[in-house]
Structure prediction request, 316 residues.
Amino acid sequence: MLVNAGRPRQWKKDIAASVDFFNAWFMEFAPAAYQQTRVQATESVLHAFAITFDLREIRADTLRDHPEVIATLRMSTCPPLAQGRLAGLAYVNKTLIAKMETGRLPPRMLATALHEYLERMSDILQRLSDRDLLPWLAEKAGPNAADRLRAATVIADRLCGSVADPIIRNAQERRQLSLIGQLLEARGYRRKAPTGGAPLNRMDAGTFAFRVNLPVGGKRQVNIPVDVVVQPKRRRRSGFPILIEAKSAGDFTNVNKRRKEEATKMRQLRDAYGTNISYVLFLCGYFDTGYLGYEAAEGIDWVWEHRIDDLLRLGI
Prediction:
C-alpha cells in the first residue's frame, strides 16, 4: 500500500510543511552543529601551525609526514585554494590531494615522484600564503598567542565554509536516524545488525539496523549503503525487510540533481532482490513536485519527517 506516492493532491501541502519544518530545525540547531565543527577545525589549524612553525616552513617532508594538513594549508593562501586549483597550479593529480586530506598517501606511488609532487605543492602554498592574515611571515619573530589564534580562527572558518552544506546535512541525517530509532524502540523493536553474512530475509523479526551495506550486481558486486533496515514483527510475505533512506535538503535545486540516485539504487536493489522490495525515502526539507513525481514514477514511496507516524503504515 502506497503511503504518500499515491496522494498527489497532498503533495503541495506536504512540501510547504516540510520546508517550514526544515527551516525551524535549521534556525535552532544548525548554528550549534557548525560551531562544534569550527572548534574542531580550529584545533586542526593550530596543529598545522605547530608542525610548520606557524606556516613559516611548509616543506615536502612535512606534507609527507602529516598529509592531513594540506586542507589547512589550502585555506591559508590568498585566495584560498580549492583542491582542483591547487592541483592545477602544482601540476599534480587532484586525487592525490583528496587522499592526503584523509591523512594518507598513495601507497603505490614511487617515492621520488611523490617527493616531487609534494615539493611543487609546498612551493605554491608558500608563494600564495595570505600575508595580511599571517603578517609574521614577513618578520623574523613569530606571532604572539593572540595573532596565532586570530589567524587560526579565520582559517578554520574558511575550512568550515567550504564544507558548510555537508556539516548541516550530516547533522540532519544523524537526527533523522535518531528519530526513526526512537519510534521503533518505542514500539518494542530492538537494534540488531544482520548476523554474519546471513541473508536479510533471515533478519530477526522486530529488529532494525542502521547503515547496512547490501551487495548488488553480478560478478562485479558492489555494496549499496542503506540508512535503516527494519524487519517488521509480522514479516512481510517476501520475508525481506523494509529499507529506509534518510534524505534532507536545504534548497530545491540540489534535490533535482540528486533524484536519479534513488531511482538507480531502486533498480539495482530490484535486480538483486526482486520486485517486491520495499524501499522508502524519509524526507525533510525542500523536495518539490518535480522530485516527488519522478520518484513516484520509479515506484519509490516516501514518508515525511513532519509526519513520521506514517512509517507505521508500512507495517512496522
Observations:
- The chain has two domains: 8-30+165-314, 36-163.
- The mean pLDDT is 88.
- Residues 74 and 241 are 45 Å apart (CA to CA).
- Residues 8-30+165-314 form a domain with the Trna Endonuclease; Chain: A, domain 1 fold (CATH 3.40.1350.10).
